[in-house]
Amino acid sequence: MQLSGIIAISGRPGLFKVIAQGKNNVIVESMIDKKRFPAYATERISTLDDISVFTYEEDVKLTDIFAKMLELYPTEAPSHKADMKELEAALAQFLPNWDQDRVYPSDVRKLFQWYNLLIKAGAFEVAANEEAGATKEVKAPKAETKKKATTAAPAAKAAKPAAPKKPTAVKTGSSRGK
Question: What is the model's pLDDT at position 93?
Fold first, then answer.
């Protein structure tokens, strides 16, 4: 599962997709309403690849949690507006050793909200298609790739004209100081 390019901005609801990068900002698109706006360096921005959830043993990356959630809830998880006890019970199904002291109820709600938002946006389907495409490319026979490279190389050399030689500059004496 690949969630690179998807970020969370502190103080703004939902998730955002990075579209372009400017000099002092990044242009992001909201995954909720598809509006674009600049996110500046002064805002607290976190990529979903970097976020982890506290457990009693070691921290678990959010991508691993979403992969487990996808197995249990392929279409939609419980709503983030559901009762907190229901959400905690659902979280315990795919992450039984989560640290209840360090993971706040707002974090649990955000986890389910983000998952449902990504499901609606089709982010998991796109990631699955990209992974399937990557495995198909790896399985391609090596003989075909060499054959294509050898036939394309002479055509590329013949089509490229020789670069004209530039005249060399001749240094002449300066009129200063005379």
Answer: 94
